[in-house]
Amino acid sequence: MPKYLFIYHADAPMKPEPGQEQEAMAAWGRWMEKVGPNLVDPGEPVGISKSVGPDGVSDKVVNAAFGYSIVEADSIEAACELAKGNPMIDGGGSVEVAEIMPIEM
């Protein structure tokens, strides 16, 4: 079954309000339960990004990545359905969905 990379994007780090940390983690737990066995790797959050280009290194990263997960699904459409209800979306961010293309050697 194909695997898909979910890349979590936002314009700024999404931190829960003080006292809401447990609810934020519970929301992620509920989403992971909904995805169930299709969740191959729950992933990790990532730190502040930098952009490296021909002009050097920049601290300004538009719509930066803030984490990832890996899921299995029959199609990219099915993977997008799994992304719906993700806490990143509920918090004002977005989920980029891309098929992982295994390298055949």
Q: Can you walk through the features of this model?
A:
- The structure is a single chain.
- The chain has 105 residues and is α+β, with helices and mostly antiparallel strands.
- The chain has one domain (3-99): 2-Layer Sandwich (Alpha-Beta Plaits).
- Helices cover 26% and strands 30% of the residues.
- The strands form 2 sheets. The chain has a 4-stranded antiparallel beta sheet with strand order 2-5-1-6, covered by helices on one side. A two-stranded antiparallel sheet has the order 3-4.
- It is flat.
- The relative contact order is 0.34.
- The mean pLDDT is 91.
Summarize the structure.
Helices cover 26% and strands 30% of the residues. It has helices spanning 21-35, 76-83, 87-90; strands at residues 3-10, 39-41, 51-53, 56-58, 64-72, 94-99. The strands form two sheets. The protein has a four-stranded antiparallel β-sheet, covered by helices on one side.
Q: What distinguishing features does this structure have?
A:
YCII-related domain-containing protein, 6 strands, 26% helix, 4-stranded antiparallel β-sheet, Alpha-Beta Plaits, 105 residues, single chain, 3 helices, two-stranded antiparallel ribbon, alpha+beta
Write the layout of secondary structure elements.
Elements: E1 3-10, H1 21-35, E2 39-41, E3 51-53, E4 56-58, E5 64-72, H2 76-83, H3 87-90, E6 94-99
Antiparallel strand pairs: 1-5, 1-6, 2-5, 3-4
Give the CATH superfamily: Dimeric alpha+beta barrel
| Overall pLDDT level | 91
Q: Provide the spatial order of strands within the biggest beta sheet.
A: 2-5-1-6
How helical, in percent, are the residues?
A: 25-40%
Alpha-beta classification? alpha+beta
Looking at CATH, which topology would you report? Alpha-Beta Plaits
Number of domains: 1
Radius of gyration: 15 Å
CATH architecture: 2-Layer Sandwich
Compressed to H and E, one letter per element, the order equals EHEEEEHHE
DSSP strand tally: 6
Can you count the helices? Answer: 3
Shape type: flat
Termini separation comes to 19 Å
InterPro entries: Dimeric_a/b-barrel
Protein name: YCII-related domain-containing protein
Organism: Pseudooceanicola nitratireducens
